[in-house]
Design brief:
Blueprint lengths: L3 E8 L3 H14 L6 E9 L5 H7 L7 E6 L4 H15 L4 E4 L11 H9 L4 E5 L6 E3 L3 H18 L11 E4 H4 L11 H9 L6 E5 L1 E3 L14 H15 L6
Parallel strand pairs: 1-2, 1-4, 2-3, 5-8, 6-9
Antiparallel strand pairs: 4-7, 5-7
Helix pairs in contact: 1-2, 5-8, 7-8
Length: 243
């Protein structure tokens, strides 16, 4: 295995936090011995996010910037990042949001599991050592209940299937046939992985609320969104093939 990985970060109108995100992640990766790339995907931003990212290229040779002229959604941005990681020959991809609600220092815990050759590494808020800070109670309840249901239906050794902070072997994820372009790609991914014989590890993390310095999250806790998440564990449980 080529000892390497890419940190894929989708961004949409994140001008106020883009530089801080890249710099903090870069600092955390100073301890890494493997080859790595930070793959920032500007997903059709109109606020100058791409200008900020491009201004960081000269000082950071490990940074790759990809710009979508039109917004393709969270899932679309990640798929672009996956293709780039595959083309670069990187062994793993690690998906991380740009708002730093997850700590860049936690990447080192993923790195240690990559070194052991684990196939799928998931951050978890819901096992010993994991927690949530500053997130409104309603969102915490919905997330906790949704994860409880998903865990029982997927029957996989992961405790936080809806968590988007995760790492996978590039050879596995690049071969998945994704249909989702939005946030439900996270659950579609687990659904597609559930039929494979893979190794899993959970990384306890602390999830914090999105800073007031950056724009509000585009994720909405609507009935439609919740259905689009939970349909995948239901399909896995009843062994329903996706169209």
């Amino acid at each position: 295995m080529n000892p390497s990985f890419g940190v894929i970060i989708p961004m949409f109108n994140e001008k106020s936090g883009a530089k801080k995100c890249i710099l903090e992640i870069s600092h955390s990766l100073n301890q890494v011995d493997w080859t790595y790339k930070i793959i920032a995907v500007d997903d059709g931003s109109s606020d100058g996010t791409s200008d900020i990212l491009n201004s960081l290229l000269e000082a950071n040779q490990n940074l790759e910037v990809i710009i979508h002229r039109r917004n393709q959604g969270y899932g679309g941005a990640l798929q672009t990042g996956i293709r780039k990681a595959h083309d670069l020959g990187l062994a793993y991809v690690l998906f991380m949001d740009s708002d730093l609600t997850n700590k860049p220092t936690d990447i080192m815990h993923f790195y240690k599991k990559m070194q052991l050759g684990v196939d799928v590494i998931k951050a978890t808020r819901y096992s010993e050592g994991g927690r949530v800070e500053g997130v409104p109670l309603k969102r915490r309840i919905i997330s906790r209940v949704g994860n409880f249901i998903a865990c029982r239906l997927f029957k996989l050794p992961i405790t936080d299937p809806t968590n988007g902070f995760r790492a996978l072997r590039t050879s596995i994820v690049s071969g998945l046939d994704f249909k989702e372009k939005g946030f439900p790609m996270i659950m579609e991914e687990v659904y597609l992985l559930a039929s494979m014989r893979l190794t899993y590890e959970n990384i306890p993390v602390t999830l914090s609320n999105r800073s007031s310095e950056v724009r509000r999250s585009s994720f909405a806790y609507t009935p439609k969104q919740l259905f689009n998440y939970l349909k995948y564990p239901l399909m896995a449980y009843f062994r329903i093939q996706r169209n």
